[in-house]
Write a structure and sequence with these properties.
α1 packs antiparallel against α2 and α5 runs antiparallel to α6. The protein folds into two domains: 49 residues, no CATH class; 61 residues. 67% of the residues lie in helices and 0% in strands. It is built from six helices and no strands. It starts with a helix and ends in an 11-residue tail after the last helix.
């Protein structure tokens, strides 16, 4: 099931969320995770959502998507440019670097 879900995400058959939900549903319905006790199949399938690390990863995707869609990653360096427009080019280079530092780990695409 895991390989099928990853393959579906890579091939972009459906949006990533839909492929993930289908993968969870098929895993829960077939009882792959706990063949002896099929009553716990749904609980085992959904137990990953109780993990805080998973939610951290999901939020990182949301924040990165927001930075890309709004163009905030490009606007912050231009704000520094507008403030320091009279200084030399070395200060501008430092400003660009400082402007990208705080939120670079949040961006999954590295933009």
């Amino acid at each position: 099931m895991f390989i099928a879900t990853i393959t579906g995400i890579i091939l972009k058959i459906l949006p990533m969320g839909a492929v993930g939900i289908i993968g969870i549903a098929v895993t829960a319905l077939t009882g792959v995770l706990d063949p002896e006790n099929s009553g716990n199949a749904i609980a085992y399938s959904l137990s990953g959502f109780a993990n805080t690390t998973i939610w951290l990863i999901v939020l990182a995707f949301f924040i990165a998507r927001g930075f890309i869609k709004t163009g905030l990653g490009s606007r912050i360096p231009f704000l520094f440019l507008r403030i320091d427009i009279t200084y030399c080019s070395m200060i501008l280079k430092i400003d660009f670097w400082l402007a990208r530092c705080p939120y670079n780990p949040l961006l999954l695409s590295g933009i």
